[in-house]
Amino acid sequence: MNIKNFYENGNIYATKVLLISDDFVLERFLVGAQNVTALSLGSGYITSAAAHHVVLNAFKNLAAVSFASGFSFP
């Protein structure tokens, strides 16, 4: 028996909907996580997904000011 279409809650779907791989799910999850991080950074509302980016950017800014002024730190 081969399934050609399936019916759920009044909708008819093709069988290719059932052929979702683990890689596809992981890829879509990562895209969503990247969007959450970008939205957090863009809005200024820090979430756990964006916190390490904020700390890294702050360190880069501190290093740039330090090198420009001639001050050094260990």
Walk me through this protein's architecture:
By secondary structure, the protein is mainly alpha-helical. Helix content is 55%, strand content 11%. The chain contains two helices and two strands. A two-stranded antiparallel ribbon has the order 1-2. The longest helix is centred in the middle third of the chain and has 22 residues, at 22-43. It is rod-shaped and about 75 Å long. The model has no long low-confidence stretch (mean pLDDT 88).
List keywords for this structure.
74 residues; mainly alpha
Radius of gyration: 23 Å
Strand content: 5-15%
Work out the number of β strands. 2
Number of helices: 2
Helical content stands at 55-70%
Topology diagram in text:
Elements: E1 5-8, E2 11-14, H1 22-43, H2 51-69
Antiparallel strand pairs: 1-2
Question: What would a concise description of this structure say?
Answer:
This protein has 74 residues and is mainly alpha-helical.
